[in-house]
Here is the input.
Amino acid sequence: MPKQRLLIKGGRVVNDDQSVEADVYVEEGVVQDVGPNLNPKPPSGLTVLDATNKLVIPGGIDTHTHLQFPFMGTTSKDDFYTGTKAAVAGGTTMIIDFAIPQRGCSLIEAFNKWKSWADPKVCCDYALHVAVTWWSDKNTKKLLAMGITGPEGHALSHSEDVEAEATHRAIIIANTINCPLYVVHVMSKSSARMITNARNEGKVVYGEPIAAGLGIDGTNYWNEDWAHAAAHVMSPPLSPDPSTPDFLMNLLANDDLSVVGTDNCTFDTCQKALGKDDFTKIPNGLNGVEDRMSVVWEKGVYSGKMDENRFVAVTSTNAAKIFNLYPKKGRIAVGSDADIVIWDPEATRTISAKTHHQANNFNVFEGMVCHGVPVATISRGKVVYHDGVFNVTAGQGKYVSRPPFPPYVYERVKQREEVCQPIPVKREPYAGVVSATPVTPS
Here is the structure.
């Protein structure tokens, strides 16, 4: 068979550390050359994409999804096919989904189950986190007794103080045993400050806000339309403080927070209605896998808070480094996987459930106008999305193993281990009198 060859001409290649005017040549799914005026021979069998006046960026990596997730008596609407298909339409070429075992089940069993669901369906590459989770009633019983049964009860029962305390506790435990910490879906100012303070103290901590937390806020829980309010229910909840998204974006732009995920876990209105009389029964989750890149560009780059290189860092490169995928993922360079997006910074689109590619009937970003649109998405050298047209096949994505101990994280940990060990005090043995009366422990 002829080799799969692709040339992206005339664009500006944007990595996390620099931007250069260059063409990109791809062969058999791997970047072979990056430079000006490339002209690979022979021309036959070569696909050429024109990227004039556009950016050529590494494909996005969504570090936090829940596709095909059995949860709260139902299953999330987007499975591994519709979810990853929507992802590539938005410029994301890899997801990391959560495998969550039932109580009492083994972690390996959960991993194998999720992989068996994903392998036949994924349209892009993926990896898996395996979670160890449980939760308790917190404040829910009190609120229900007060007659608060609507979606606002979800926000009231999951206070910002609780999120901040849990974050602080995790930071202390991790630091005590010299272990790096990755905090998912940072939703509040208080939790973000805990991470910022820890990083300022030299602790190895990374924070992940999500697209919804950067684009909208929790005032939606008090909307008089129950279905609208319930559509926004997730945990931790969106902050009711409307200044929080801007606050989190500032920290993301300044490297206090590191990576943007989505916590994508979609349930339609009928599924959310399982909790119509009791907010504790509303399935938790909302969308984001398709709109993450555009929301971050709109709220981060177009607003002037970050440049194009930082955008690449927080949507792709940092995730690749933290989860030991770099430089195969998260970078456009010779030898890297050809997961590439041609991005038009001047184009706009209006987000809507009527036009999105996710299986859900509601989009929490409904009506948001975003500057910055993916024109083409390339996964392992194959053009899977171009000008609104898909070229995907279920199962064409690959599971990507992630070796433990990524150097980006653990070099710091190893250095701390070497230089921060306690040293015993050298002293002469005690030679004085010892009491003859035994001490009884109290």
In short: The mean pLDDT is 92. The chain is about 30% helix and 20% strand. The two ends are 81 Å apart (CA to CA).
